[in-house]
């Protein structure tokens, strides 16, 4: 380990130089594989650029993801068994899907990957995490299910589901000294995930300082502003011009948008190649990047409680300003009166007038 000055002003640790790294990606939490599908759309950087070594300064990357792999069955699992036996020193563990904690949910298991050659029994996802996390250089949660539990971890669920930091502990550190890194989203925004992975790979290569994370363990540069602050419709909010139904181009707060209090860069970044981004294209923000999702944001499609106050308070200001702007806009749509086709100039210019007192 060596200490370096981080760009945000504090000394921190980076791992030793590493020139080859395996990414062991487990999709066997409870989920839909949507995060694996999502990252195939990334372009900043693309998955292909990372695994084909097109980006200078990165370690050589070997990706092992069941959705994107050529190998299957025991062939695919070999590298996971190797890592669990301690025969693979440089790997990053990526978790996708909610983690059903069988210690809470009782007998049996809810999710597993492969079978144990010794017992012939399925290997539960939690068993893989127990075996692999202590040996990993970094542990990353991809998507809301893996990071905070998501829909599977709702009140009343029988599975004991939770996110990776709930399972390992919020203060958990990898053998390289890295905290858990959470990249939430349902699914994860493709470039958010790949940019975070790129950062970690640079850190493991010894050329980047400790990844800056917020208190929900999300990369700060991606999650430190709200949906509302980046929304294409924010001007409608400021003018108290609210949609009453879907299909409107106005602010969606009264039909259920939580954007003013949710941290997510999707309206700014778009979804694929800069295009899309929930409220920009007519979808209310349901707060899927937040640790409280979904319970604390339900019922969806109702006006959020805080929005009732703010949209009520903004109304007198917004309506007045909107009408004043209409007057100004009307004025601006007319050319100045001295632009005409009459024979005399009426600009007010007088060649005999001293320069200091000239109206122009
Ligand atoms: S649609 Fe949502 S995020 Fe956009 S301005 Fe309205 S409340 Fe804010
Ligand atoms: S804008 Fe809201 S719903 Fe859309 S990805 Fe971000 S947090 Fe989720």
Automatic annotation (TrEMBL):
Subcellular location: Cell envelope
Record-stated family: Belongs to the [NiFe]/[NiFeSe] hydrogenase small subunit family.
Location (main, coarse): other
Catalytic reactions of this protein: H2 + A = AH2
Keyword Iron: yes
Summary of subunit composition and partner proteins: Heterodimer of a large and a small subunit.
Cofactor(s) needed for function: [3Fe-4S] cluster; [4Fe-4S] cluster
Domain of life: Bacteria
Record-given protein name: hydrogenase (acceptor)
Residue stretches making up the Cytochrome-c3 hydrogenase C-terminal domain: 223-300
Class in the EC hierarchy, top level: oxidoreductase
Organism of this sequence: Methylocapsa polymorpha
């Amino acid at each position: 380990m060596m200490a370096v000055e981080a760009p945000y002003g504090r000394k921190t640790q980076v791992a030793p130089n590493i020139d080859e790294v395996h990414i062991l990606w487990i999709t066997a939490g409870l989920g839909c594989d949507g995060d694996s599908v999502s990252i195939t759309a990334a372009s900043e950087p693309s998955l292909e650029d990372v695994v084909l070594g097109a980006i200078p300064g990165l370690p050589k990357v070997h990706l092992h993801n069941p959705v994107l792999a050529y190998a299957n069955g025991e062939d695919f699992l070999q590298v996971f068994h190797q890592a669990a036996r301690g025969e693979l020193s440089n790997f990053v563990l990526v978790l996708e899907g909610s983690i059903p904690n069988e210690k809470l949910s009782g007998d049996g298991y809810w999710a597993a990957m492969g079978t144990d050659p010794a017992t012939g029994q399925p290997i539960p996802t939690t068993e893989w995490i127990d075996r692999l996390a202590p040996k990993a250089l970094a542990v990353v949660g991809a998507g809301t299910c893996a990071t905070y539990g998501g829909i599977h971890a709702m009140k009343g669920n029988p599975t004991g589901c939770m996110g990776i930091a709930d399972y390992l502990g919020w203060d958990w550190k990898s053998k390289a000294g890295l905290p858990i890194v959470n990249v939430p989203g349902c699914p994860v925004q493709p470039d958010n995930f790949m940019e975070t992975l790129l950062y970690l790979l640079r850190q493991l290569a010894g050329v980047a300082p400790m990844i800056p994370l917020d208190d929900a363990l999300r990369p700060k540069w991606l999650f430190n502003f709200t949906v509302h602050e980046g929304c294409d419709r924010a001007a409608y909010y400021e003018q108290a011009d609210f949609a009453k139904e879907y299909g409107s181009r106005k602010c969606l707060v009264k039909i259920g948008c939580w954007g003013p209090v949710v941290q997510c860069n999707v309206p700014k970044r778009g979804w694929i190649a800069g295009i899309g981004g929930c409220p920009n294209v007519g979808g209310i923000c349901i707060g899927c990047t937040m640790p409280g999702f979904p319970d604390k944001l339900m019922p969806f499609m109702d006006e959020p409680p805080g929005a009732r106050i703010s949209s009520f308070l903004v109304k007198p200001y917004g309506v007045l300003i909107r009408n004043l702007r209409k007057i100004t806009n009307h004025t601006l749509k007319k050319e100045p009166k001295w632009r005409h086709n009459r024979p005399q100039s009426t600009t007010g210019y007088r060649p005999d007038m001293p320069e200091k007192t000239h109206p122009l």
